[in-house]
Amino acid sequence: MNFASDNAAGVAPEILAAIARANDGSALAYGNDAATRRVEQRLAELFEHEVAAFLVPTGTAANALALAQLTPPWGAVLCHAESHIATDECGAPEFFGGGIKLIGLPGEACKLAPETIAGALAGRSWGGPHHVSPAVLSLSQATEAGTIYRPDDVGALAEIARGRELAVHMDGARLANALSRLGVSPAQATWRAGVDVLSFGASKGGALAAEAIVFFDPARAAGMQERRKRGGHLVSKHRFLAVQIEAYLADGLWLRLAGHANDMADRLGNGLAAIGHAPVWPVEANEVFVALPPRTCERLKAQGASFYPWATASLPTGIALGDRTLLRLVTSFATAAREIERFVELVEAA
Amino acid sequence: MNFASDNAAGVAPEILAAIARANDGSALAYGNDAATRRVEQRLAELFEHEVAAFLVPTGTAANALALAQLTPPWGAVLCHAESHIATDECGAPEFFGGGIKLIGLPGEACKLAPETIAGALAGRSWGGPHHVSPAVLSLSQATEAGTIYRPDDVGALAEIARGRELAVHMDGARLANALSRLGVSPAQATWRAGVDVLSFGASKGGALAAEAIVFFDPARAAGMQERRKRGGHLVSKHRFLAVQIEAYLADGLWLRLAGHANDMADRLGNGLAAIGHAPVWPVEANEVFVALPPRTCERLKAQGASFYPWATASLPTGIALGDRTLLRLVTSFATAAREIERFVELVEAA
Amino acid sequence: MNFASDNAAGVAPEILAAIARANDGSALAYGNDAATRRVEQRLAELFEHEVAAFLVPTGTAANALALAQLTPPWGAVLCHAESHIATDECGAPEFFGGGIKLIGLPGEACKLAPETIAGALAGRSWGGPHHVSPAVLSLSQATEAGTIYRPDDVGALAEIARGRELAVHMDGARLANALSRLGVSPAQATWRAGVDVLSFGASKGGALAAEAIVFFDPARAAGMQERRKRGGHLVSKHRFLAVQIEAYLADGLWLRLAGHANDMADRLGNGLAAIGHAPVWPVEANEVFVALPPRTCERLKAQGASFYPWATASLPTGIALGDRTLLRLVTSFATAAREIERFVELVEAA
Amino acid sequence: MNFASDNAAGVAPEILAAIARANDGSALAYGNDAATRRVEQRLAELFEHEVAAFLVPTGTAANALALAQLTPPWGAVLCHAESHIATDECGAPEFFGGGIKLIGLPGEACKLAPETIAGALAGRSWGGPHHVSPAVLSLSQATEAGTIYRPDDVGALAEIARGRELAVHMDGARLANALSRLGVSPAQATWRAGVDVLSFGASKGGALAAEAIVFFDPARAAGMQERRKRGGHLVSKHRFLAVQIEAYLADGLWLRLAGHANDMADRLGNGLAAIGHAPVWPVEANEVFVALPPRTCERLKAQGASFYPWATASLPTGIALGDRTLLRLVTSFATAAREIERFVELVEAA
């Protein structure tokens, strides 16, 4: 019963097989290989758009390099106060950006609302030169609450951003989960809705260690090769990154894996709701947040369930935790239905 | 006939098998797993010394994070002018170090001599506060010329460094090749000779993407967890880094792989010498540098050999290239004897 | 009627005279002069404590260098959300700190309350290594609302900070105004209350361009000489910085100048209150914040008054601006009583 | 007999008087004042070209901000190995530039030769993305050896730089001395010869603390306001910087002051040559470098002369110091002829 993180899962067998297959013979290092060219082409097809793509081994690298590229050092990134870039990357965006500022904004279920962005842009002094200048709007898809922006949501936010010449970045560490749920195309969820640069995650979805930074305007990527290299993120045996993404995208694997994780989350959410423990936020991706009595949490742990408690200021109005502990339960491509059933049974018994 | 780089080789089968084996079940992310604990223990045994070890996916990350840890932003790193950190990492040490300065020094065969270090420390103003302060001596083992420091060489350099309170860093991207040649223990080649922090390479030696930053004084590693994370170098499915190093070290695999690469380099160097093209530097690790007429180079390429031309200011006194082009030929664990033979034949025929 | 900023005032005559006097003969540059030694000694006497002091030409330099010294790059500075370091220095602390994070906290009248600090330290994940680590508590004295921390206030906040090993920094750009009001000694207001490092302002108080970074524990200042130099903040003809501070402190000039500014602020606040426009925050230093109808503001400007509108989220509970515009009115050592009277008359007439 | 530095001189009386005059009444802070507008206009007239100018209090700030503006973090600055930016600013350019690299090149009398620049650009790998990219050529005028580039020299160097799309920066801390000697216009010595950005020094020439960063293409200065502010280099009472530059330029004061310093240097150089101690480099600005026996140096110090010994690798071919110590003797606007005479007499007597 591992619900601690989708990072706790291993590697999807198809991706592991692709790594093994790629180990045949030599290939020029640092991305000068055929697999890298193939995956760049594949990403362009997938997104139905010209792209410049840069593979890196971690999601933090993808986010930090993308943000550093999109803002001058005196720029600000508007994001949700509980977003991964703001709270879980130990200041990587600030470091790579030369001291940029992340402006954490509130929003129920970790989603930003248009009026919040508009208010933040209107409500304080910017630039001039005493103040930092707003440069990027960054959205997490899916959010840290396991919720999802619809293309229209993204479009409304991006429109406000563009009106002030902000670039729009999407942290798509769990983009597959969002797309699987929404049933829209990668293009619809990203550049057609106004996204300029995407951190396209694969590690949480089933890869070993591979993410892609995708620029929908290649001109905007000038210098990214150097930026990645001096960040220490240009992997020498680069073909092994490329084939991970390639296998992840082949035959819709990524959406099948994400779909399974989402199904497991649904089942978990529904199971808990049925016994009186409805999730605090809608279950839209592969995360379920539920408030349980501390004693129940202790028992679950004792019986082998792994998960983390969660602190948030983004609960829906009217929901109070009281004495309960909020838990984050993450499902993955590897989650088995019996883990779900066992967990729900244990909660019920507790 | 791939002699472009040891990075062009794939993954040693034993290491690939270890990755596959590690894919069984879930494991806590970010290094909180059993394999990570095992490899930390293994490194301590290997070096016969307490260590703090940090795994990262690239050699540039290992070097840049190590150097940033060892020097304040106003510090200087003394190194060979043609060292990897000085010329091939696109300024990564300067970036991670907050604007440190690398002082490139000359030395035949890319090796630093004690009098060079002593002269550099004596010959200019340091500190005070107008000048940067010397903080680190960094040595490459093996060097970029494929040559090797003996433990006594390292000891003599380290003694000078310590006399001025410089830390000693070793870029051991090819440490295995050096050790295999020298027949000394890892301890003798590192901390016993005065090395404080080692970038322990595995990628060039046969791993997919795994390096370890090894601190022989764990107290000196305070903050390294945060430094690595905010550099984007904490890989989420960390067990897959750990098992690469573990398999690399198991049963002496790393030294066998390096020994094979060295043997191939010997064979190549001897073969070329026998036909009148003696390498310009002693062949001590897995690199052979030979000067050939440009037309020969063209032919070799046309016949499928891959390699890079090499620019250097570190040739032995008395050796002039004239019209010839200096080539770098790198062997690896995967180099086959027939590639060597074919290459030598082609040179002879040209 | 200049109420735009205390920076709009010129230089106190005594300080200008000291500059002229210092222009006699030559003196070693970069702080190796007698005046610099005298002012270092003077600061130690003033604060009744051993100090290490570093003179710089701007308050932003003082704050940014001090904060960078007190926190590792992965550290966080807890401060009021509307503090100068957080909103008016264009990211200087983040730049000098190598990408540190400023955590802006709420507080009525721009003052931080102990429970706010305690809550911030308890209410989110810190360190570990995913999260930044709290490293500094920074207080503005006087605050951006013109309010003042009593020594006991500082003491209570500092105690919480020390309990978590945070350093305590005070942005004392208007320390003189606070001290003049409180009638306590410099020691009582700073190190005795728990302040570790002080940005000691003189420019706003009457100097041309001079601030001092004062470390009450000189050991904590290791490397500050280099940090200042590489920040471009070591002024070559340093004696002219030193004599500014020296003259500022001589014979209590600094407190007299601040006392006058405070008196003018009192008079302005009282005058406005008497005609129905009570300041929104207590007038404790040299700033008065008053909400006036937009039309009144226009008229005041037309009649030669200069001031800035002010945006804040720190109004006392129960105070709403409605249609009114909040103005910041700053007095200085150079403010004349007739400017106050004229301004109040104009408001009354409007 | 102060020959330690032109920074050891005080402030020219005309400049001090201008500061006192500017202290009349209030003025908006941070450069929003009339004096700042006037000096910007004055600089444009002086250089016969549209400019964007940014005043800062130190030369290190001017250089570091200019270089950071002209190169991406992965850029390299080509400069003389003994230039001020490379050796005397404690890494300020590297810090402000986010980890840029300064490539120190050799050159007799601290002057760079066209073939040196051409060779540096041709002789190593650049960009690609493993290597840093050459971005700026920086020239010191006058040089650290007190020598001067003619407009044709600058033109030849700039032409090579532009052929590789490098920007040309001039560190003009002693530009006045060069212009006074050359008798060419500011335009001829700068933008007409290919200079893009100039650090225009005034402090060494007689100001209290004022330098200007002058962009001859204002479009290239985008973001400089923010860069200066977050560097802590936007002086609040900015009018006092502006009037220093204004007075420095009024009625040719700057060239008169520099001319006097140069005359004193000539007299010193000639006097020493006449007694058998010819300067090692041509005396072209306000610095004289002479090699004297250590015992003579001791005596001079004992008799009240101040100066610094100098280490260099830029002596003319054929000149050896032997047992002698190389001294740097700097004259200034304040140097008196009797100081020169006394110094020469003492050398002769020794």
Descriptive account of the structure:
The structure is a homotetramer of 350-residue chains. By secondary structure, the first copy, chain A, is an alpha/beta fold. Chain A contains 14 helices and 10 strands. The first copy, chain A, has helices at 13-22, 34-47, 59-70, 84-87, 92-96, 114-122, 151-163, 175-182, 186-189, 224-230, 239-249, 253-274, 294-302, 337-349, and strands spanning 52-56, 75-80, 101-105, 133-140, 167-172, 197-201, 211-215, 287-292, 308-309, 325-330. In chain A, β4, α7 (151-163) and β5 (167-172) form a beta-alpha-beta unit. The longest helix of chain A is centred in the last third of the chain and has 22 residues, at 253-274. The interface between A and B is large, with 55 and 54 residues.
Summarize it.
Four copies of one chain form a homotetramer. With about 350 residues, the first copy, chain A, is an alpha/beta fold.
Describe the protein's topology:
4 copies of one chain form a homotetramer.
Chain A: H1 13-22, H2 34-47, E1 52-56, H3 59-70, E2 75-80, H4 84-87, H5 92-96, E3 101-105, H6 114-122, E4 133-140, H7 151-163, E5 167-172, H8 175-182, H9 186-189, E6 197-201, E7 211-215, H10 224-230, H11 239-249, H12 253-274, E8 287-292, H13 294-302, E9 308-309, E10 325-330, H14 337-349
Parallel strand pairs in A: 2-3, 2-4, 4-5, 5-6
Antiparallel strand pairs in A: 1-7, 6-7, 8-10, 9-10
Helix pairs in contact in A: 1-11, 2-11, 8-12, 12-14
